Amino acid sequence: MQPITRLADYRPSDYLIDRVDLDLRLHPTETRVTATLALRPNPAGEPGAPLVLDGDELTLLAIALDGQPTGPGAIDVTPRSLTLHQPPQRPFVLEIATQVNPSANTKLMGLYRSNGVYCTQCEADGFRRITYFLDRPDVMAVYTTRIEGERADTPVLLGNGNPVEQGEVGLTRHYAVWHDPHPKPAYLFALVGGRLGRVASRFTTMEGREVEIAVYVEPGKEDRADFALDAVARSMLWDERTFGRAYDLDVFNVVAVSDFNMGAMENKGLNIFNDKYVLASPDTATDADYANIEAIIAHEYFHNWSGNRVTCRDWFQLCLKEGLTVFRDQEFSSDERSRPVHRIAEVRTLRARQFPEDAGPLAHPVRPQAYREINNFYTATVYEKGAEIVRMLRTLLGPETFRRGMDRYFATCDGTAATVEDFLAAFAAESGRDLAAFSRWYEQAGTPTVAVSGTYDPAARTYTLAFRQSLPVVATEATAGSAPQPLVIPVVLGLVAREGGPVAATSERVRDGVFVLETAEDTLVFHEVAAAPVPSLFRGFSAPVKVEHALTRDERLTLLAHDGDAFNRWQAAQSLAMEVLVDRATADAPLEAEAGPEAAGLSSALATFLDGEALADPAFAALVLTLPGEQEVAQTLRSEVDPDAIWRARQSLRMQLGRDLGPRLLSLREALAAPAGAPFSPDAASAGRRALRNAALDLVAAADPQAGTALALAQLETAATMTDRLAALATLSLVPGEAREAALARFADTYRHEPLVLDKWFALQAMIPEDGTLERVRGLMRHPAFSLGNPNRVRSLVASFSLNNPTQFHRPDGAGYDLTAEVVLALDGKNPQVAARLLTAFNTWRMVEGGRRRRAESALRRVVETPGLSPDVSDIAGRSLA
Ligand code: PHE
Ligand code: ZN
Predict the structure, then answer these.
(1) Known catalytic residue: 150?
(2) Which atom of ligand 1 is nearest to the CA of 303?
């Protein structure tokens, strides 16, 4: 098994690399790489230590030290390392030639070919698959890259930084030289060579720099790159206005590739993207795709400061760049779209992905203390909870102090490889506050629970809120394992009058609407309260906690109707629905069971809500109509979970809402229909109207599958957007029969040349909550458009089944577990990173009821006991069983 790396063992590198000159001769199977490294002993390192360079599956062709061949016994070389036993104790130059095979690189780390295009992926430790190197983020160098290739195969040659030279080599080859003046760690290195189409624009920075922005895509798809191109320019402008950050090179290139392990990568000046997050046209992309493209373009661009100019000292600090950059992209999307609607989307993701992670065997702190395989720590906890910590910091310090802290962080850490401590020090200095207790958010795993109860004293005219926080004890490899300490929890709150309207009560402990809970228990007293109010707590989801707050149904209805905070209005509807779902799932009520008064109360509240304001903010209304997901219900139930009972509970509530609200939903659909021939716009308002129409369709179809099918078929015929077409197909996919199969077949035929659209078709079928789905998925794995070698295909078909189809993944007979384990093992030899991610589907195995639990465990054991597992899969499997 891979050894453990610990934060506590961090030591500076014994050697530093100041300059790197790379010369790459691109060849499909024999690419030659010559690296000229200007090294020197690190004053902070151990004098005289051997120089150990990292490698991974490398073949050494030649090596020279200061221009001379190395003597016998001077070096030791394996595919994984190159050791120079007695390096000079002064600056010296190593010239290293290696050979790699991009076509055989199915891990998609290092240099590989995607659809004939040469590209690289170096984070976290892929650069060592290109040349021997000190492959750690605190070794930062200035790179010059010369790329040479066949003109016919690789007319486009891109590197980091600015282009400095290009020319011919013989009759058929050419080269380009790129220079990046900003010192960077190896994980930010990139190159691209291929036949690519290009769209471009210009941006003048606030510092007066003229930047050429270009997006490169598969030839013929240039018109699908315009939205991404525009998103780059909007991101640049936003970061100048919001954080005072300007771009710092003459070119900014984005390249879309079709085989990519993750979403995208922030290589300096040369962002490489999964094409799913670049290509968009009304006919092929949904509103969600447009929103994702905008957010991910922004995310990678924002890394230029939060990640590249200031990078991470070591991989334990991953949240320093990722949490902060997610926070920045969330703010961007909120400003470009609707802030409350976006906040709800963020929280839904957090609850669906991060909360389960924090509650399962893979739980780890936002800054882990140990890891075996760093690739497995690109998690919802590091990214999404990491972003919540930055958000809490802003809430605690206020926006102005927060901005000054950010400025100080960028100013003091520019050009360095920093730590979480450096980040917090900037805010402590700017605010004069001690952030030591706050920093526990980075160290303690698990989702805190805050229990709250309120009491009104009419005689004293006081209203008292009692808070109690508790943290689960999480003892894993990645945690330090000490008893949890109280966290600093910002509670944004307000009081709402029962008949509506805010209550103007005061408390010394509330500043700018924020109460700070920093001890295990605390009470908050409001004075001059004329009547018992309804507390609105954690407005805007001001902390990533679970709230236990025993409000009555009427109190929740008051919040839904009258809260000044849109997030909490949505939350009130969610909580009302969750109560119904939990009751029904616990009682294992049959589908047709009589609806209780709670469900009826929810229906009538939603009716009032829809009548009053659905048309004023359709995007928000669509979210209010969407019930908590099955996974979220499972998290609430916590143990002995029966996924079928949860599905039935949710289905019956959808049926009831559809019945009770049917006529309203139908007239909303009419009112929101886009006029025939109206031009398409992906903007948030238009997307919101489509979202509400489709949420209405979903509920109508739940109550009346026949009517729903008819509506969906009509919508499929006339839809002008992929959003509407896919929503109709999703509705049809839930009703077994001829109509469904015919519609699916037609869709596949229409889009047979569009892999990204077929991904939606795969995903939709993999998520059908029916017994036959497993066989369907097996069949689709043999479809000509499917390939285990392409991560997008695996994610859309298999991961949709394993991660997003709870009833079928958790089939009582264990066949869902078996299929997942089988694919994990088949994939592991090709692409361990994607295999390991798929295996995280087992994260919830301990929560399910006994029979399923035993079957899940035995599938996991089968994985763990397979010889020759990758470090990635063995790490996830091992921790899942621990
Ligand atoms: N750093 C990338 C991002 O979040 C994610 C990534 C990690 C991509 C590892 C590839 C490999 O922006
Ligand atoms: Zn990132």
Answers:
(1) no
(2) 12
